[in-house]
Amino acid sequence: MAKAKNDKPAKPQKSDKSPLTPTASSQAIDIGISGGDRRNIAEGLSRFLSDSFTLYLKTHNFHWNITGPMFNSLHVMFETQYTEQWTALDETAERIRALGFNAPGSYAEFIRLSSIPEEPGLTEAPDWKEMVRQLVAGNEAVARTARKVLKTADEAGDDPTVDLMTQRLQTHEKYAWMLRSLLE
After folding, report:
1. For residues 21 and 100, what is the distance between their CA atoms, to the nearest angstrom?
2. Total domain count, the chain
3. Which regions are flagged for Basic and acidic residues bias (predicted)?
4. How far apart are CA 102 and CA 21, in angstroms?
5. Is residue 50, in this structure, part of any structural domain at all?
6. What are 147-177's pLDDT values in tens digits?
């Protein structure tokens, strides 16, 4: 059936399935982890990367748009956090590649795979307490996703991914605690 000129393409639906694309050399990878386990780990890491990128973007957005009596301390705290998060994004994407799959890298992919909602910056910057509340929730969401990936990786004997997820859990649990303390 032909599409009419005025029809807009269907908006991608959020799905639990991740259409991972193996790299050209994926079939030749023999690192002691089965192809199916590598795929499952890479799918989890793709969700983790998407949550992490969305949290990074939200943290950077709030750094730019913070106002009020907490401006200076939160501006600096948010910058410290998003700078550290940026470096970790690369480590996660490189782990997906090492497992033989392409890493998600577009806003559309990140939105589809992330469990963290976007936050508008240009039109509706929340007050500092709401920013902090959202960043607590975001860091907790990233920690939950990391735990799932860690379990999958551990069951498959993927120690590098277990190590990466352990490090990220420590970081995001610490960020959530530090931010949560501001609301007490």
Report:
1. 9
2. 1
3. 1-17
4. 6
5. no
6. 999 999 999 999 999 999 999 999 999 999 9
